[in-house]
Amino acid sequence: MTGKKIENRTGGDARASIEHFADRSRDPNVVGFLHHPASAPKDALILTHGAGSNCRTPLLVELAEAFADAGMLVLRCDLPYRQDSPQGPPRPGGAERDREGLRNAVAAARGLVPGRVFLGGHSYGGRQSSMLAASAPGLVDRLLLLSYPLHPPRKPEQLRVQHFPVLRTPILFVHGTRDPFGSEDELVQATKGIPARKDFLFVAGAGHELKAAKAELPLGLQVRDKFAEFLGEFN
């Protein structure tokens, strides 16, 4: 299922690498990149993208590298709508198929590690990840939701929280303090309806793309360290 190795990031250790990944035995297919840590991983993290992007976005690459450096296997993958078209937003009515693609990615990751599988995504990808987890308790062990699109910009009454009351997978939310899709207060208030354990990492000065002008640590390390704290340990 895996493909050609495209990078070796840590000197002479051939296991610390990135490779193309494709599992076409499942429909929808699982296509993206696999980040191998330097030693055999126990756990895996799946990362997917927002509505206007793909799995090659710098945010996902940075996060994948940070988590792989900490010993985790990371699969960053394109949602089915992006596999079908290199540009443009998700297709109307296609969200269920995108969630099935994430379900298949989880199944693929379960076959690659002996331990836990975590699911994460940016914006649209995170929302679909949370909806999948709400519909299938126990499918994944934790969620990492980046810039959850709580509501459309300037439309705070259109909340996207219908599935929150049945979401029982523990969640770490990573959110910019200048995100037009939801403020800190709005997110904290809206997530009170989630019965699962949850925590927050607010990125000062960052918007929806999580780019901050100043930061003591690179974002990838901030998120990795906060997630490690949230888990208690990586392995």
Features:
28% helix; 235 residues; alpha/beta; 6 helices; globular; nine-stranded mixed sheet
Account of the 3D structure:
Strands 1-2-3-5-4-6-7-8-9 form a nine-stranded mixed sheet, with helices on both faces. The protein is built from six helices and nine strands, in the order ββββαβααβαββαβα. The chain has one domain: Rossmann fold (3-Layer(aba) Sandwich). Mean pLDDT is 93; it is low at 10-15. α1 (58-69) links the parallel β4 (44-48) and β5. By secondary structure, the protein is of the alpha/beta class. It is globular, with a radius of gyration of 17 Å. 40% of the residues are buried. α1 packs across α6 (219-231).
Number of domains: 1
Strand-pairing-aware structural class = alpha/beta
Mean pLDDT: 93
The fraction of residues assigned to DSSP E strands is 15-25%
Strand tally, please? 9
> Count of helices?
6
Q: Which spans of ≥5 residues are poorly predicted at pLDDT below 50? A: 10-15
Question: Looking across the biggest beta sheet, what order are the strands in?
Answer: 1-2-3-5-4-6-7-8-9
Main sheet?
Answer: 9 strands, mixed
And the CATH topology? Rossmann fold
Series of secondary-structure elements, N-terminal to C-terminal = EEEEHEHHEHEEHEH
CATH architecture: 3-Layer(aba) Sandwich
Helix content: 25-40%
What name goes with the CATH superfamily? Answer: Alpha/Beta hydrolase fold, catalytic domain
Write down the CATH class: Alpha Beta
Radius of gyration: 17 Å
Principal-axis shape equals globular
Span from first to last CA?
Answer: 25 Å
